[in-house]
């Protein structure tokens, strides 16, 4: 999607500036977020395209919203769902055990 004549691109985002990289056919820019957003569209990425000699040609921008996903469970089996229970990562069988019990429906709902 780079404009004709572009030989390099640079990336700026809400936490600082990126360097310029050569633009080759098949170049893919992958964006990821390291934390959830505090509000919708609170992050912005701008990609700038440059011609030979560093002359700016065009820019493209996108607003991003990072969504946090967590499986919160009653890992202690005490009736309280906790977000950061230390027992989420392990399993112990029995009445004094810990770890989530998941009931998964794996049957074929539709032909």
From TrEMBL:
Residues annotated as domain Protein-arginine deiminase (PAD) N-terminal: 18-65
GO CC terms of this entry: cytoplasm; nucleus
Residue stretches making up the Protein-arginine deiminase (PAD) central domain: 67-109
Primary gene name: Padi2_0
Domain of life of the native organism: Eukaryota
Coiled coil feature spans: none
UniProt-recorded Gene Ontology molecular function terms: calcium ion binding; histone arginine deiminase activity
Gene3D superfamilies attached to this UniProt entry: Protein-arginine deiminase, central domain, Protein-arginine deiminase, N-terminal domain
Name of the protein in its database record: PADI2 deiminase
